[in-house]
C-alpha cells in the first residue's frame, strides 16, 4: 500500500506540474502551487524530483520519448517516401491528440537560463536528426543546405502543434468564461467541441499534401539551380 501511495503521489505531482506548465509557463509556476494542485506536501517535490527543474526534465524526457515512439510506430520503411510522410503525419496528429498537455509543456517550455534544460533539448534535437535523416534523403532534401534543412525540419510538427495549442487554449478560455459567469456566445460557437477521427484523418492527409508539395517545389528548384550552374538549359 505504501509503495502504491508513493507512486500515486509522484504521478500526481507530475500531472499537476505538466498541466500548470502548459497553461501558465514554467517561470510563472512555483513548487507550492504544484504541491497544492497535486494535493501533496511541498517537501515531496524535492523528495521525488529534487525541485521544479527536476519535474521539467522528467516532462521533457517523457514528451520526446512518446513523440519519437509515435514517429517510429507510424513509419513504414517499406513504403514509398510519400507514403511514409502520410503515415508519420497521422502518427504525429495522434501523438498531439493523445498527449496535448504533455506536448504543450514539453515542447514549449524552454528556460534558456537553465543549462541542464538546454543540454537536454539539444540531445533530443540530435536524436531527431538521426531519426529523420534517412527519410529526408529519400525525399531528395539536401540536409547540408542550411536554409533548406531549417525550412523542412520540424515543419509538420510545428503546424500540428499550433493547431492543438490553439484548441487547448480555446478550451481553457471557454472554461474560464464559464467559471466567471460570462455568457460569451461567440466563443462557445467556435471550435471548442471535440473534433472526430474523420476530421483528423482528412486533416493529416491534407497536411501531408501541403508538406509534400512544398518539398517537391524546394527540391525541384534546387535541381534547376544545379542545372543552370552546370550550364544546362532547362526547358
Q: Which class best fits the helix and strand makeup? A: mainly alpha
* Count of alpha and pi helical runs: 11
Shape: globular
**Annotation, overall tally of beta strands:** 0
CATH superfamily of the largest domain: Tetracycline Repressor, domain 2
Helix content: over 70%
Low-confidence stretches: 229-235
- Radius of gyration, rounded? 21 Å
The figure for the number of domains is 2
Estimated share of beta-strand residues: under 5%
Characterize the main sheet: none
Assign the CATH architecture of the largest domain. Orthogonal Bundle
User: In whole angstroms, how far apart are the ends?
Assistant: 76 Å
User: What is the level 1 CATH name of the largest domain?
Assistant: Mainly Alpha
Mean residue pLDDT = 85
| Helix and strand pattern | HHHHHHHHHHH
Name some characteristics of this structure.
about 240 residues, globular, transcription, Tetracycline Repressor, domain 2, mainly alpha, Arc Repressor Mutant, subunit A, 2 domains
Any chance you could write out the topology, listing elements then pairs?
Blueprint: H1 2-24, H2 31-38, H3 43-49, H4 52-74, H5 81-98, H6 100-108, H7 115-138, H8 146-152, H9 155-179, H10 185-188, H11 197-229
Keywords: DNA-binding, Transcription, Transcription regulation
InterPro entries: Homeodomain-like_sf, HTH-type_TetR-like_transc_reg, HTH_TetR
DNA-binding region: 30-49
Briefly summarize what is shown.
This is TetR/AcrR family transcriptional regulator. Keywords: DNA-binding, Transcription, Transcription regulation. With 235 residues, the protein is mainly α.
Amino acid at each position: 500500500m505504501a509503495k502504491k501511495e508513493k507512486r500515486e503521489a509522484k504521478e500526481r505531482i507530475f500531472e499537476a506540474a505538466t498541466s500548470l506548465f502548459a497553461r501558465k509557463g514554467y517561470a510563472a509556476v512555483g513548487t507550492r502551487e504544484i504541491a497544492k494542485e497535486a494535493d501533496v506536501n511541498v517537501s515531496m517535490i524535492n523528495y521525488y524530483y529534487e525541485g521544479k527543474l527536476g519535474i521539467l526534465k522528467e516532462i521533457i524526457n517523457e514528451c520526446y520519448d512518446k513523440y519519437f515512439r509515435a514517429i517510429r510506430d507510424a513509419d513504414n520503411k517499406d513504403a514509398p517516401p510519400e507514403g511514409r510522410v502520410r503515415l508519420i503525419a497521422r502518427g504525429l496528429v495522434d501523438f498531439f491528440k493523445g498527449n496535448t498537455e504533455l506536448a504543450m509543456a514539453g515542447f514549449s517550455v524552454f528556460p534558456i537560463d537553465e543549462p541542464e534544460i538546454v543540454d537536454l533539448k539539444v540531445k533530443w534535437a540530435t536524436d531527431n536528426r538521426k531519426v529523420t535523416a534517412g527519410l529526408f534523403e529519400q525525399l531528395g532534401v539536401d540536409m547540408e543546405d542550411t536554409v533548406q534543412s531549417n525550412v523542412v525540419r520540424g515543419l509538420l510538427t510545428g503546424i500540428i502543434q499550433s493547431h492543438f495549442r490553439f484548441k487547448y487554449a480555446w478550451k481553457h478560455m471557454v472554461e474560464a468564461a464559464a467559471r466567471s459567469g460570462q455568457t460569451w456566445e461567440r466563443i462557445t460557437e467556435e471550435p471548442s467541441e471535440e473534433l472526430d477521427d474523420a476530421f483528423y484523418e482528412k486533416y493529416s492527409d491534407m497536411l501531408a499534401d501541403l508538406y509534400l508539395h512544398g518539398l517537391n517545389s524546394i527540391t525541384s528548384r534546387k535541381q534547376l539551380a544545379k542545372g543552370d550552374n552546370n550550364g544546362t538549359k532547362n526547358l
